[in-house]
Amino acid sequence: MTVDPLIQSLKGKLVVSVQAYMGEPLRTPETMAQMSRACELGGAAAIRCQGLADIAAIKGRCEVPVIGLWKDGHEGVYITPTLRHARACVAAGADIVAIDATDRPRPDGKSVEDTFRPLHEEGVLLMADCATIEDIRRAVDMGFDLVSTTLSHGVAAIDCTMADGPDLPLLRQATEEFPGLPIICEGRVHTPEEARAAIDAGAWAVVVGTAITHPTSITSWFKAALEA
């Protein structure tokens, strides 16, 4: 597998996921762009973000690559669930598009391969958000540019506690089966030590979101510790 230079530039680096949920105070594209720029200044090698307005705003503020996705819904396949969603992310400026790479039913009735193939033929760099080793194997076989453990935790990031750590067993299994391929650790990475452990386990790069960019969750962790 030939690794694209943009993907190569992420090796051993930190990617920061900058997202806010509907109804939250920070849920505006300008705020997400400002936070992304702050993360870039701190050393983020790329920004992962969701929504067309956020992608466009962050591309206008940051120089690092943007991994874009479009969350549509809250259950089942909702991370860039269709070809239409993926192409819209490209049009908004995403350098890489992340899509749900599980084999669950999609809103348009198509398979993940039906979504992947035309985008791949168009030269779009694609990140596979996976839940299981079977998802990862399928994504590697298809030829995804990046493969991630994003969905292995099974719940929204804000529903995880600080005690929940990254899925290092899945990460190790994937990196041992596919040495040298861009396997990304994403999900429940809450401390610098956990990020380092992911790299030591073979991760190509590490995505950290909630622990850097979601102050509501971070505040709740401190509050819980004081009340324990």
Low-confidence stretches: none
The name of the CATH superfamily reads: Aldolase class I
Shape: globular
Range of strand content: 15-25%
Text of the CATH class: Alpha Beta
> Major sheet, described briefly?
8 strands, parallel, barrel
First-residue to last-residue Cα separation: 49 Å
Q: Which structural category do the helix and sheet elements fall into?
A: alpha/beta
Please tell me the total number of domains: 1
How many DSSP-defined strands?
A: 8
| Radius of gyration, CA atoms, in whole angstroms | 16 Å
Q: Mean pLDDT, nearest integer?
A: 95
CATH fold field value: TIM Barrel
Q: What proportion of the residues is helical, as a percent range?
A: 40-55%
| CATH level-two architecture | Alpha-Beta Barrel
Please tag this protein with its features.
228 residues, alpha/beta, TIM Barrel, 8-stranded parallel barrel
Descriptive notes:
This protein is of the alpha/beta class and 228 residues long. The protein is 41% helix and 15% strand. The protein contains ten helices and eight strands. Strands 1-2-3-4-5-6-7-8 form an eight-stranded parallel beta barrel, surrounded by seven helices. Helix 4 (83-92) links the parallel strand 3 and strand 4 (96-100). It is globular and about 50 Å long.
What can be said about this structure in brief?
The protein is α/β, with parallel strands linked by helices and 228 residues long. The protein is built from 10 helices and 8 strands. It has helices spanning 5-8, 29-42, 52-61, 83-92, 112-121, 133-142, 168-177, 192-200, 210-213, 215-227; strands at 13-17, 46-50, 66-69, 96-100, 125-129, 146-148, 183-186, 205-208.
